[in-house]
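Entry for the shared binder. Reason: the reviewer on the internal report wants the predicted structure included alongside the sequence.
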Amino acid sequence: MEEKNNTDELFNHVVETARHRNLVQDGDLVVITAGLPLGISGTTNMLKVQLVGDVLVSGRGVSKGIVCGNLCVCKDEEEAHKNFKDGDILVISETTNEILPILKLASAIITEHGGMNSHAAIVGLTLEKPVIVAAQNATQLLKSGTTVTVDAARGIVFNGQKYKRKP
């Protein structure tokens, strides 16, 4: 292992090395041990649990399921009607019955508002689609056309199509 000057650099280096060697992948939780101060043998006195990968947004996962796809980020329902393509992951502030046909075609749903009893949650559970609600600022942080992975069980959205759950 390469020596590092601080714990942040060390932890990032360890995770990247493990990912490069295919020991971990995006979405895995890793446990890292270290000793402080750094560089002194026999001082293992720190434990950190870290999520591997680039999480773009997180919220409350309503259902189970992992989906990879392109985002369709909409500020309102009118924009959803104009821009949504079959199979997109819909990102919107909240949902209503006005966009139910779109919700049926979405591979996943991400909303900024709502909880377990929200429209998006109920529709997603009924249609057996991955849904994340209460993803703060999702419509500002996410960009249409970006390919992401939605892990609804954990309520997280990753950059890219890297995440594949191990059997």
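Summary line for the report: Residues 30 and 112 are 28 Å apart (CA to CA).
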